[in-house]
Please model this.
Amino acid sequence: MDYVNAFICGGILCAIGQLLIDKTKLTPARILVFYVVTGVALTALGIYEPLVQWGGAGATVPLTGFGYSLAKGVKRAIDTDGFLGIFTGGLTATAGGIAAAIVCGIVFALLRKPRDKA
Model:
């Protein structure tokens, strides 16, 4: 059942993103930022945690999950480091994912020949 919940949760988040792309004049970059900020805001309000408990990877893998990770990292760092945690918590919590994305980008750039789409 966990797989079904993850599929439903992730599918709904992706469908909302696709609707925003199709029905609004928002650029994809603005939609991505909107998703991250929404993840942070919903985490701050205590709404996103139950969604993560129910949807699992369907809630943590999309960009709203990145915002969730940032917010949880800041909260944890504030609890341990005080005011300084505001600046360090999000980076500490998401450093592994960011590093993996950079390494994968470099590896694929070395394996493939990057070029313009035109």
Observations:
- The chain has six helices and no strands.
- The longest helix spans residues 85-111.
- Residues 106 and 112 are 10 Å apart (CA to CA).
- The helical segments are 2-23, 28-44, 48-55, 57-60, 63-81, 85-111.
